[in-house]
From TrEMBL, chain A:
This is Cytochrome C oxidase subunit I. One of its GO terms (molecular function) is heme binding. Residues 1-510 form the Cytochrome oxidase subunit I profile domain. Pfam families: COX1. It comes from the Bacteria.
From TrEMBL, chain B:
This is Cytochrome C oxidase subunit II. Pfam families: COX2. It comes from Bradyrhizobium forestalis. Residues 76-178 form the Cytochrome oxidase subunit II copper A binding domain. The lineage of its organism: Bacteria, Pseudomonadati, Pseudomonadota, Alphaproteobacteria, Hyphomicrobiales. Coiled coil: none annotated. CDD domains: CuRO_HCO_II_like. It comes from the Bacteria.
Length: 540, 187
C-alpha cells in the first residue's frame, strides 16, 4: 500500500536532481585538475565546486533517499497509511529551504570550507544554518518513523516488526544520534564564530566532534542499500532471505558499533592521545562484523534463488541466476565494489597502515568506491524497483537500465582504482591542480587522466539514470500491484523482544558513545588556551 | 514438506550460519590483536601525549620562534626538526636531515589546519593550530622528497608544497658543527 506517492516521489526527484548537479560538478573537478584540463587560473572556483559537491552528496542526496525509501517502507511493510503526512511535507520543505540557504554562500565563494567545515576556517553563517535546516528536516523523518512504528505496534501487539521497517527505524535512530556530533560542533563552536559573537575556536575539539558524525554517517548512507540487499533483492530475483534473525542482528550491530569508532579519522591528529586511538581502531574492526554476516546471508539467499531456478553444482548455480534482471546486476556490482572498498577500509582502520595513505587520494578513492559505488548503485536499483509502484507506469527499457548500471560500475572502477594508486604514491587530497611538469609528480599524470575518464563515464551513467526515470513518468500505465518485500525461508512467527525493539540497543549505542568519546571531549573542552583565532573565508 | 523436515532444515541453516559467524569473529579479533602487536612490538604507535601551544604567540617566544626552526643535531646524535605550517607554506620550506639517524619532527600550525606528508614514506601528521604534532622518523637513503600539505587550508592549498632533503650523515654532522638551525632553503 503506497498512499502518499507524491510525497515519496518529491523526495526522490529532489534527491536525484541535486545528485545530477553535484555529479556534474564532480566530473568538472576531475577534468580541471587532470593534465587534459586547461590550467585553472582561479583555483578558488575549484573549492566552491568541491564544497557544493561534498555538501550535496554528503548531506542532501543520501538523506533524501533514506527519507523517501523510509516513507515507502513504512507504508508498504506496515500496510498502514503514513501518520503525520503534514509533518513529512514540513521536513521536505525544510530541506529545500536549507539547501538553498547553504548553496547561495557557496556559489558566491563565501563558504568554501568544504563539507567537513575545517575550523578555524569560517565561512558565511548562512551556509552552516542551511546545513542545520537540512538536518532538522531529516529529524522530522526520524520522529515520524518512530511514531508510525508505534502506531503499528498498538494495532499488532507482540507481532514481529517486518524486517524492512525494523531496519529502517534502526537506520533512522543511527542518523539521529550520529548527527549530534556535527550539530554540537555547529551550534556550540562554529555558528557563534560565523555570526560574529566569538572570534576564537578550538579546532582540535571541533575535529573530534566532527569525527563523531563523520564515520557513522556512512552507515546511515549504507542503510537503504543494506535494506535493499535483504528485503528487495531476494524477492526481485525469485529467492528467499536465508535468515531473518541474522538480518536483524546485523542491523542492530550497525546501530551499536557504527557510532563509537569515528576517531579513526583522527589517527594523525595531535589533540587525541594514543589510547583512545587504539580503542577506536579496535571498534572499527568490529564494524566489519555486520558486513561479513550480511555478505554471507545475501550470498546464501541468492544461492537459494539460483537453486530454485534449477542451478546445480558447487559454483554452477551462479550461471542459473537471472543476470538480465537489473536488480541482480546491481547487487553483483555493489558486492564487488563493497569487497574492494571494504578491504581498503580495513587498511584505513589500523593506524600503522593508515599513516602511509592518510589524507591522500587513496581516501578519496576509498569512500567514492564505497559510497558512490556500492551504496549509490543500490539507490539506483531501489528507484528502479519502486518507480512502477510510485508512477503506476512500467519501466520498459531493461536494456537501457542494464547499460546504465554497467556504465556506473565500470566508471567507478576506472575512477577509483587509479586514485588508490596515486594515493599510495603520496598524492594529497583536495588540490585544485597539480604541477605535472615537476618530474616527481609527472608519473602520476596518467593515473589522474584515467580517473577523469572514469568521472565522465559516471556522469554519462548519471544522465542515463535521470532519463530512464523521466521516461518512466510518461510510459504507458500499468498496475504494478502492491509493493512487497522478500520473505525469509523460515518466516518468523514470533521474534525475541531484543530483536523486535530498540531500547536496549539505543541505550548501548549512547553508552558506548559516552565511554569512547566522553573523556576525550571533556578533556579537550576543559583544556584552556587551545582556542585559536578564526580565519574567515572569502572575507574582503 | 513436513513440519519435521522444516525443523531439520532450519537446524542445518542455523548451524552453517553460526559457523560463519564464528569465523567472522575470529577474523576480527585477529585483526585487532595484530594491530596491538604491531603497535607495541614495532613501536608504531601514534604520538602518546597531547601538547598545546598558542598559535598567536608562536613568533614571539618559545619553541617555535623563527630562529629555532629547522634541524638541530642533539648531543646524543639524534636530530630534532622543528617546523611550522601557515597559509600557504612551511617554514622551513626545505627540511635538511641526515640519513640513517633517528629524527624527531615537532611541528604546529600558525593559523588553520594543515598536514605534513612526506611522499614515499609513512611520515604523515596533521598540524592543528593550538596543538603540537610529534613524529619519529628515519630515512634509510639520501635523496629529495616532496612534502605537500595534505589538508585543505583554503584557496592556496594546492600551492603548499615543501621539500625534504636527506644528506649523508657525516656531511650533516659537518654542517651542524657551527651550531644553529639547519635547513636547505635556497639551496
Amino acid at each position: 500500500m503506497l498512499a502518499n506517492k507524491k510525497l515519496i516521489l518529491a523526495h526522490f526527484w529532489l534527491a536525484f536532481a541535486v545528485f545530477g548537479v553535484a555529479l556534474t560538478l564532480g566530473a568538472w573537478q576531475m577534468f580541471i585538475r587532470s593534465p587534459i584540463g586547461t590550467w585553472l587560473s582561479n583555483p578558488e572556483l575549484y573549492y566552491r565546486s568541491l564544497t557544493a559537491h561534498g555538501t550535496v552528496m554528503g548531506y542532501v542526496f543520501p538523506t533524501l533517499v533514506a527519507m523517501a525509501f523510509g516513507y515507502a517502507i513504512s507504508e508498504s511493510a506496515l500496510e498502514q497509511r503514513l501518520v503525520g503526512v503534514r509533518w513529512a511535507w514540513a521536513g521536505f520543505w525544510l530541506i529545500v529551504a536549507g539547501s538553498i540557504m547553504a548553496v547561495i554562500p557557496i556559489a558566491l565563494g563565501r563558504a568554501s570550507v568544504l563539507y567537513t567545515f575545517y575550523p578555524p576556517l569560517i565561512g558565511n553563517v548562512f551556509y552552516y544554518l542551511g546545513v542545520v535546516l537540512v538536518v532538522v528536516g531529516s529529524w522530522i523523518w526520524v520522529a515520524l518513523m518512530s511514531i508510525n512504528l508505534r502506531v503499528w505496534r498498538k494495532a499488532h501487539p507482540g507481532a514481529p516488526v517486518p524486517l524492512a521497517m525494523f531496519a529502517n527505524v534502526a537506520g533512522s535512530y543511527l542518523w539521529a544520534w550520529t548527527a549530534v556530533g556535527a550539530a554540537l560542533e555547529l551550534l556550540l563552536q562554529i555558528i557563534p564564530v560565523a555570526a560574529g559573537l566569538k572570534a576564537t575556536i578550538d579546532a582540535g575539539l571541533a575535529r573530534v566532534f566532527f569525527s563523531w558524525t563523520l564515520h557513522a554517517i556512512v552507515y546511515f548512507w549504507l542503510m537503504p542499500t543494506y535494506i535493499a540487499y535483504y528485503t528487495i533483492v531476494p524477492r526481485a530475483i525469485g529467492g528467499r532471505v536465508y535468515s531473518d534473525t541474522m538480518a536483524r542482528i546485523s542491523f542492530i550491530l550497525f546501530l551499536v558499533v557504527a557510532m563509537p569508532i569515528g576517531m579513526h579519522h583522527t589517527f594523525a591528529d595531535p589533540q587525541v592521545g594514543a589510547g583512545f586511538k587504539f580503542i577506536h581502531s579496535a571498534f572499527t574492526a568490529l564494524v566489519a562484523l555486520p558486513t561479513l554476516l550480511t555478505v554471507f546471508t545475501i550470498c546464501a539467499s541468492v544461492e537459494i534463488a539460483a537453486r530454485l531456478r534449477g542451478g546445480r553444482g558447487l559454483f554452477g548455480w551462479i550461471r542459473a541466476l537471472p543476470w538480465d534482471n537489473p536488480m541482480m546486476l546491481a547487487l553483483a556490482f555493489s558486492f564487488v565494489m563493497l569487497g574492494f572498498g571494504g578491504a581498503g577500509g580495513l587498511i584505513n582502520m589500523s593506524y600503522q597502515l593508515d599513516a602511509s595513505i592518510h589524507n591522500t587520494q587513496w581516501i578519496t578513492g576509498h569512500f567514492h568506491l564505497i559510497f558512490g559505488g556500492a551504496i549509490v548503485i543500490m539507490y539506483f536499483a531501489i528507484a528502479y524497483d519502486l518507480w512502477p509502484h510510485l508512477t503506476g507506469r512500467e519501466l520498459i527499457d531493461l536494456r537501457l537500465i542494464r547499460t546504465q548500471l554497467w556504465l556506473w560500475f565500470v566508471g567507478m572502477i576506472v575512477t577509483t582504482f587509479p586514485w588508490h594508486w596515486v594515493g599510495i604514491l603520496g598524492m594529497p587530497r583536495r588540490m585544485a591542480y597539480f604541477d605535472f611538469s615537476d618530474p616527481a609528480i609527472a608519473p602520476q599524470a596518467l593515473s589522474v587522466t584515467l580517473s577523469a575518464v572514469g568521472g565522465f563515464m559516471l556522469l554519462t551513467s548519471g544522465v542515463l539514470f535521470l532519463v530512464i526515470l523521466a521516461r518512466g513518468m510518461r510510459a504507458p500505465q500499468a498496475d504494478a500491484g502492491p509493493y512487497r518485500f522478500a520473505l525469509a525461508v523460515h518466516q518468523p512467527a514470533t521474534v525475541p523482544v531484543a530483536l523486535n525493539t530498540y531500547a536496549l540497543w539505543v541505550g548501548l549505542m549512547i553508552a558506548l558513545t559516552l565511554t569512547n568519546y566522553g573523556y576525550p571531549i571533556l578533556t579537550l573542552a576543559l583544556n584552556e588556551g587551545t582556542s585559536v583565532p578564526a580565519v574567515y573565508v572569502g572575507a574582503q | 514438506m513436513s513440519a519435521e523436515e522444516t525443523h531439520g532444515s532450519a537446524e542445518v541453516a542455523a548451524r552453517i550460519e553460526r559457523r560463519w559467524a564464528t569465523i567472522a569473529v575470529i577474523i576480527i579479533v585477529m585483526m585487532a590483536l595484530l594491530a596491538a602487536f604491531a603497535g607495541i612490538h614495532r613501536a608504531t604507535m601514534p604520538q602518546p601525549r597531547v601538547e598545546t601551544t598558542d598559535p598567536s604567540r608562536l613568533h614571539l617566544s618559545g619553541e617555535f620562534v623563527e630562529s629555532n626552526l629547522g634541524s638541530v643535531l642533539e648531543a646524543n646524535g639524534n636530530v630534532t626538526v622543528r617546523a611550522i605550517g601557515q597559509q600557504y607554506s612551511f617554514t622551513p620550506a626545505c627540511i635538511l636531515v641526515p640519513a640513517d639517524t633517528p629524527i624527531t619532527l615537532r611541528a604546529t600550525s600558525a593559523d588553520v589546519v594543515h598536514g605534513i606528508l612526506i611522499q614515499g614514506t609513512n611520515v604523515n601528521t596533521m598540524l592543528v593550530p593550538g596543538y603540537i604534532s610529534e613524529q619519529l622518523m628515519r630515512f634509510a637513503k639520501t635523496g629529495d622528497y616532496l612534502m605537500p600539505c595534505q589538508e585543505f587550508c583554503s584557496f592556496g592549498h594546492e600551492g603548499m608544497w615543501g621539500k625534504v632533503k636527506v644528506i649523508d650523515k657525516t656531511e650533516f654532522a659537518g654542517r651542524a658543527k657551527g651550531g644553529g638551525r639547519l635547513s636547505c632553503v635556497g639551496q
